[in-house]
UniProtKB/TrEMBL annotation, chains A, B:
Its cofactor is FAD. Residues 38-216 form the FAD-binding PCMH-type domain. Transmembrane segments: none annotated. It comes from Sulfidibacter corallicola. This is FAD-binding protein. PANTHER family: GLYCOLATE OXIDASE SUBUNIT GLCD. Keywords: FAD, Flavoprotein, Oxidoreductase. One of its GO terms (molecular function) is FAD binding. Coiled coil: none annotated. Pfam families: FAD-oxidase_C (PF02913), FAD_binding_4 (PF01565).
Length: 486, 486
């Protein structure tokens, strides 16, 4: 599928011929984002240079009734940047301006293509940083963080992206431009700013972001607690919270992930442990040691066989490198894995972790766990072989059972990865019909013809017949059976 | 205006005869909330006992096309609970259940009529509290806090109500019930929870609130800095923030308010000072003293003539009592005052404060200031005599000029008091037409006939002819002239 020649001509007039691509190789290379299970090709890829070019391109597509969607770095895990229905993909990679920084009001203006970590680098000379720190922070874009309302290990203390963005400039699906919020950090009237953050590219395309910056902690203390059972590690999480402590981060890694980390990164984690907890404290200079001691006492009382305190910045950096590259490390032990993102009240951690292992066992699948324990934000990683159709089917089924378990515990379908196209078929189980209808109507206020990023978030009625994929594509057949629609 | 007898009969069947009132004295007593400048009487007041009664009453009113609105404690300052167009007022005072508390997940479920401070009292045995702390916290209701997205002195460190509420149960204007958010603290899909918080009772009536609780600080350090000029106090605010410090609170009080406080409460504030700053730090045990010293150095370098450290909890409590009762204390020096609520980037504080004093001088009015300096959230208090029509007119004009100054500085119309009916005529200057239209359409998704709380937030086109008020009512005539519509 390629662009209609008249449309291509109009787009080239606006963007230049280098920035309108609909050749098969380009389209093929954009067929998935971080979610590889549901590929779909765009009919073309556009690379606007600035807001005015974007507006002009959006107006052309909108007039022609051609659907489109933005794409940041493509690291999303729920398929938010996968073009359904042959939509035109708008690459935001050329929106790279950073600054200016305002150190008194603690804000920085950035364009959406800026890499997350580069915001903190720019703010560092002022003793400030941008808090949201997903594992992909070396690659993911701030625009994508806004779309998915991204979190990270430090969500526990500091909240998610919506807590760290005070203003947006947005291009609506009809090409109109609006500013939401602003440097004064408040938004009277219905809060369209919070509505946009986390709307997964279904309400508008962000072209400018005013980020809120936070002072760098004066001192950080990182410790690693080693456990002989996952249950003890989970119970330690509740015990730390119940003691009134607010760690900056509280992360759990299980044995399978520890072994993968040790095979690739070599962080010195004990390979005979069933689980480790990373606990990070940060704050004023002198108070830390007492709190670290208190936490060590709690950890040992809950069964920790060893508690190591990071002696220096190098040791701390290694622990975090291991945590953030853990997903990649799993490549060393499994050809493919499927990352889940469910949330539960943290008090339910021990029993839900046991249930996840049981779900894996029932399907003959190994499930690894590395996640934001303090927030109750699970990331079960289902290991599977992508060449084995039976394993793919079992993987989908196990994923669905895990998320249904989260819902049954009063939890939710996603903590930070979004619904995208991955979990849209589960939204019926997560929300009542009245809520879903109101959500759809709110989307329709901004995106009435659903030209922008169609087929995301909400269940798609009766679309089984439209399954894409090559004839004989085992994955597509299995998706059909498992009820997941491409 | 009283209820149609058929409607009264239906409502009494649902609520009981004691809980449907439309006698003149009841209606008169509900003609205003904390904003006294724009009174309007309801046609009746209802007192439902629980959600089911509320739903039944809302269905009756909705079927009859009678407008209605909820009222919490009536402490709001922008007229959000003032019944325009003879709406029926729904008193939420009987929704008083507190609990249960979940200390591990740090949540508490409360009904909307619960007084703000009572939430923290209930949580205290678990070492937890509910952060939002408006000056009215001894009286205001949590439902009102949700409606207005209330702040308080500790907004600087902890954010406003939207950061401390994780779930709501809401009755929509047609009587349908929806749950938004929940104990897992996340809301995938379009974020209706954040949309509701701060919607000023225009989207639905809240019947249950899951509050997020926060650990009580281990130690608090409060200091009072004395200045010979407002400018020096303002510049100290920027200097503290620029140093990378995040105080828990950073409040400014000017000479006029200091004198009123000393005449009534007697907090020992120096009556010859032009301004004082309250700076509060809280955190780990040992680190505080060093940070307090650093702040004292900054304050003195910026012109503080004295810096007092609260020696004990009693001294701290007295400082905060003075701050929180400052509005009341002004009654000792002026028959009436009008509280403004504008926000500016904090770096603009020095010049905006000077501009506010100039606006007061130009209109022959005294303007006092007591406000959240760290957030740039101003509360200019315009002192006036409510029996002097010329002063009322000048007060409206000065208020408008102050808010226009905030907008010109990149600020906003409200930090925590809302738009209500007070500032709806200024929204055109604060938002572009595209944004306003989308806000109205979002409201229409939930409140399509505008039966719920009509005439709030958005400018009312061509309604001057409908001015209410007794013939010869000077205030009403002046409102007409000043462009503010009742």
């Amino acid at each position: 599928m390629a662009l209609d020649p008249r449309v291509r001509k109009k787009l080239i007039r606006v963007l230049g011929s280098d920035y309108v691509k609909d050749d098969p190789i380009t389209c093929y290379s954009y067929r998935c984002d971080g979610l590889t299970l549901h590929p779909a090709e765009p009919q073309a890829v556009l690379y606007p240079a600035d807001r005015d070019q974007l507006v002009a391109a959006v107006r052309i597509l909108s007039e022609q009734g051609i659907s489109f969607l933005p794409r940041g770095a493509g690291t999303g895990l729920s398929g938010g940047a996968v073009p359904r229905e042959g939509s035109v993909l708008i690459e935001m990679v050329r929106f790279r301006a950073i600054g200016p920084i305002d150190p008194v009001n603690r804000t920085i203006e950035v364009e959406p293509g800026v890499v997350n970590l580069h915001v903190s680098h720019a703010a560092q000379p002022h003793g400030l940083y941008f808090v949201p720190d997903p594992s992909s922070q070396k690659a993911c874009s701030v625009g994508g963080n806004v779309g998915e309302n991204s979190g990270g290990p430090h969500t526990l203390k500091y909240g998610v992206t919506v807590n760290h963005v005070v203003g947006l400039e947005v291009v609506l699906p009809d090409g109109e431009v609006v500013e939401l919020g602003g440097p004064a950090w408040t938004t009277p009237g219905p809060d369209l700013l919070s509505l946009f953050i986390g709307s997964e590219g279904t309400l508008g395309i962000v072209t400018k972001i005013i980020c809120r910056l936070t002072p760098l902690p004066e001192r950080v203390h990182t410790m690693l607690a080693v456990f002989g059972s996952v249950r003890e590690a989970c119970e330690s999480v509740s015990a730390i919270i119940r003691a009134g402590i607010v760690p900056a981060a509280l992360e759990m890694i299980d044995r399978i992930v520890i072994q993968a980390i040790e095979q690739t990164i070599g962080a010195g984690f004990p390979t005979d442990a069933e689980a480790v907890l990373i606990v990070e404290l940060e704050d004023l200079r002198e108070g830390l040691d007492a709190e670290a001691e208190q936490i060590e006492t709690i950890l040992r009382a809950n069964g920790a066989v060893d508690v190591r305190q990071a002696a220096d910045e190098a040791e701390r950096a290694l622990i975090w490198r291991a945590r953030k590259e853990a997903f990649g490390a799993l490549g060393s032990i499994s050809p493919s894995f499927y990352t889940q993102d469910g949330v539960i009240p943290r008090s339910a951690l021990p029993r839900v972790l046991e249930r996840i292992l049981a779900i894996g066992a029932a399907h003959g699948l190994t499930i690894a766990n590395v996640f934001h324990a303090g927030d109750g934000n699970l990331h079960p990683l289902i290991l599977y072989n992508s060449r084995d159709p039976a394993e793919i089917e079992a993987t989908h089924q196990a994923g669905r059972e895990i998320l249904e378990t989260c819902l049954a515990e009063g939890g939710s379908l996603s903590g930070e990865h979004g619904i995208g196209l991955e979990k849209s078929h589960l939204m019926d189980g997560a929300f009542d019909e009245v809520s879903l209808n109101h959500m759809k109507q709110v989307r329709a206020v901004f995106n009435p013809r659903e030209l922008l990023n169609p087929g995301k978030i909400f269940p798609q009625p009766g679309r089984c017949g439209e399954l894409k994929g090559r004839p004989g594509d085992a994955a597509a057949q299995l998706r059909a059976k498992s009820g997941i629609r491409v």
